[in-house]
Specification:
The longest helix is centred in the N-terminal third of the chain and has 22 residues. β3 and β4 form a beta hairpin. By secondary structure, the protein is of the alpha+beta class. The two termini are 43 Å apart. It is elongated and about 85 Å long. The protein folds into 3 domains: 114 residues; 63 residues, Type Iii Antifreeze Protein Isoform Hplc 12, CATH 3.90.1210; 60 residues, SH3 type barrels (Roll). It contains 2 helices and 14 strands, in the order ααββββββββββββββ. Helix content is 15%, strand content 36%.
Amino acid sequence: MNVNTTFFRRLTSTCRRLLGAIAAACLFNAGSPALADPLTLPDLLIGVTQGFLEFTVEDYLASSQTEGRYEIEVKQLDPRLRLPTCDKELTASLESPAKPVGRVTVKVRCDGTSPWTVFVPAQVRLFREVVTSTRPLKRAAIIEPADVILRERDISLINQGYLTNVDQAIGQKIVRPMVNDQVITLVHLEQAEVVRKGDQVVITARSGTLSVRMPGEALANGGMNQQIRVKNLNSQRVIKAQVIAPGQVEVAM
């Protein structure tokens, strides 16, 4: 999985070397103490937070099998911040939220003889290829292949469920108007009905390579892959069948 990290801080070369060492220590010891420094400055706390978040985000992406790239922006701290020297290793933990995506807060703590705790705010942006519209779409429109495309977006800003495959949207009905280049989420979609109650349908009964067709009547509305009640017009029996296409249902023998 290719994951890229973007840094938003600019530090002196001395600070870069110092924070690089601290970040590396955090990367290999997530949840365990990070290195302490005789002088605890805001830049040092930012370095600890950056390193901890890099490890945490990488672990989250791997464990959730999520593909994407991320950017971490640690917010600036008050440059006047002064804290006692910590005679123990610093520890970092995720204070909120549960997932390291979006606005996060990292708790950096010293458990030495002069203990202290600092809460460092940060922003983790996670970019993925998601389904977006290629043109304005009216309410009740049925999505066609030309209406959608995959584009990279920051999913930390999307509250509702997003789609990562255009096939998830094609054939669905739009329940609210959409503009061009808008991310399509689950709240925008409704299963489109391809069979309506009273429609004459073809019932296909399959068993391995053997299939039998017979006329039927739909007793309910149904969308693709939905199960509906159908009357077999030959036997007058009512059965449950799966909608496989407009005017066609299938049942396993």
